[in-house]
Structure formats: C-alpha cells, structure tokens
Design a protein that fits this description.
This protein is an alpha/beta fold. The chain folds into 2 domains: 195 residues, Rossmann fold; 104 residues, Helicase, Ruva Protein, domain 3 (Orthogonal Bundle), CATH 1.10.8.80. The protein has 14 helices and 11 strands. The strands form 4 sheets. It has a 5-stranded parallel beta sheet. Strands 3-4 form a two-stranded antiparallel sheet. The chain has a two-stranded antiparallel ribbon with strand order 6-7. It is globular, with a radius of gyration of 21 Å.
C-alpha cells in the first residue's frame, strides 16, 4: 500500500524524468506525457506523424534518461522475421561445430520500430509475441526479454505507397496511439536553436530499470472509485455499434468498437496519471485525458462516416463528453 511519501516520491521522479527529456525535446508536451504514462504502465506506443517531427529522437532521449538498453529497427519490405528476433548460427568450437543463438534487436528494453508499416505482415507478426508476452520463440525455444520492455513504433500517415497497414490484432497490442502534431512557430524556433545553434544542455539519467518497475508497482495499487471505473467501462462499450445501448453516433459511423484491452489500458494509465498529478485516487479527468489515445486505433469508421467526412477524433470527443463526466 502506498503512502503520502510514496506519492510525493513518485511525482518527484516523474517530474525529473520529464524535465530531463525537455532539455533535448522542444515542445510536444502532450506526446511526452503520453509516452511516459505508457512506459510506466508497461505498454507499447504507436507514434504517428509526418517525417521530421522528432519521433525517433524522442525515443532515443527517453532511453538515455531512463538508462535502458535501446535498439532501433528500420522496417523495410525486405526485412525478415529472423532479422529482428535473432537466429541460430553455426560457430566453430573446440569440440567441433555447434549452433549458437545470436539475439536480434528485439532483445533490448526499448525497441524503436521505425516506420513499422513498411514491413511485410510476416515480419510485423514477429513482433506480436514480443509486444504481448515479452518473449521470443526461435526454433521451438522461448526466451524472455529484459524488463521493463517496450516497443515504440512510428508510422507516417501521409505516405501510403509501398506500405502494409497494421492489422487490427496488432494495433490492439499498442496501449496508446499518439498523434505527433507539427510544432508551433515558437516551438519551431526553439528547435532551430537547439539543433543548429548553441546547445543549451544534454539530458541526463533520471531513473533506471528498477525505478521504473517500482513506479509501475506503486501505480497498480492506486484505488479507483466504482463510479469512475464504470464510466470508463461504459465508454468502451459505447464504441460497439452492435450493443443495444449503443449511442446514435456509434451506430451510424462505427464499423466495430474497442476490445477489453482498451478498458485495461484506460484504467492502468489513468492510475499513473493520478499519481503524477499528486492525487490519491483516479479522477474523471484522468480517464478523459488517456481515453482518446487508448481508443483511436481500436475503432474503425464505416462507409457513412467516410462519405460524410467524419473522423475518429470528433467521434471520440463526443463519446468521452457523454460518458465521462
């Protein structure tokens, strides 16, 4: 059970991590906030934005601040599953030849899957076990991955030629889908000063693997009032057009709704945000903050929504306003 001192220590360490990241990351506060919530909650994140917005740089800075092993995989159509999981290679020993497992880039604590939608479905599928089970199976042998473990993937929403959209089963493995916006004029000026001007400071380590695991364990014990939890569950159910209580917007514009993983994602990340805000329990505002990132990649628009120019974001705003008060 956590105490007041535990909450203070959690909020202090969280703030230190965020401030260190800010030394090398201009703007994108909401993106950084969601990334930290997911990392502490123990989930994977899909970052979507046009090239040049600093998605890869943000993940590199995160690994530096958390002092965790980091690997980057540049996904391309010719990438094979063994290229990321690893494979058995033949080596010469004193007793003759023997097979030895050579680990692939998935064997790191933070794995950056850059432009994940450029890989073929076969290679994308190789990520599923790592993302969900934190293990890799090669030649019938299952090997555990280091803890904490996160897959942080990026994709470009504009360029679709030569890409393979992620299937729903794999999208569901991502805790958050975070949209990376273009910087404002002020932020763009700060980026120029940071990258082509005088460097103001370098991010330093603010936590390690043990601290992240401890923060995760602390967040799991944060209480949620029955009414607050029910609002989150009702929100997830409201995304299903086939249910009897589905709202008119859902029936008219959604093809299918979110899975139970969405409810797990909302409640687990809301707990982290409550502690980060210095509160002893989850509030409705925590649910409202994390719900869009938990749901936007788990819903599908139907033909009527496309023809009428509706998007996921506007539908989510309406559902959150209706069910989380």
């Amino acid at each position: 059970m956590y105490t007041k001192d535990t909450i203070s220590a959690f909020a202090e360490r969280y703030g230190k991590i965020r401030s260190e990241i800010a030394k090398e990351m201009i703007g994108q506060e909401a993106v950084v906030e969601h990334l930290l919530l997911a990392v502490i909650a123990g989930g994977n994140v899909l970052l979507e934005g046009v090239p040049g917005l600093g998605k890869t740089h943000l993940v590199r800075v995160l690994s530096k601040v958390l002092d965790l092993p980091f690997s980057r995989i540049q996904f391309t159509p010719d990438l094979m599953p063994a290229d990321i999981t690893g494979t058995n290679i033949l080596v010469r020993t004193e007793d003759g030849n023997a097979f030895r497992f050579q680990a692939g880039p998935l064997f790191s604590s933070i794995v950056l899957a850059d432009e994940i939608n450029r890989a073929t479905p076969k290679t994308q599928a190789a990520l599923l076990e790592a993302m969900q089970e934190h293990s890799v199976t090669v030649a019938g042998e299952t090997m555990k991955l280091p803890e904490p473990y996160f897959v942080l993937a990026t994709q470009n929403p504009v360029e679709q030629e030569g890409t393979y959209p992620l299937p729903e089963a794999q999208l569901d493995r991502f805790l958050f889908k975070v949209l990376v916006p273009f910087p404002t004029l002020e932020e763009l000026g700060g980026i120029m000063n940071l990258t082509i001007g005088e460097h103001s400071g370098e991010a330093r380590q603010a936590a390690g693997a043990r601290e992240i695991l401890d923060m995760r364990e602390t967040a799991r014990s944060v209480p949620i009032a029955a009414s607050v939890q029910e609002s989150a569950l009702r929100l997830v159910l409201a995304t299903h057009p086939e249910t009897t209580d589905a709202p008119e917007t859902t029936r008219k514009y959604l093809r299918f709704g979110a899975s139970p993983r969405a409810a797990q994602a909302i409640l687990s990340t809301a707990r982290v945000r409550a502690l980060e805000q210095g509160r002893y329990n989850v509030a409705y505002e925590d649910i409202r903050f994390v719900a869009p990132a938990c749901l936007r990649h788990r819903l599908a628009l139907n033909f009527a929504a496309v023809t009428e120019g509706k998007d996921i974001e506007s539908i989510l705003r309406e559902l959150v306003d209706t069910y989380v008060k």
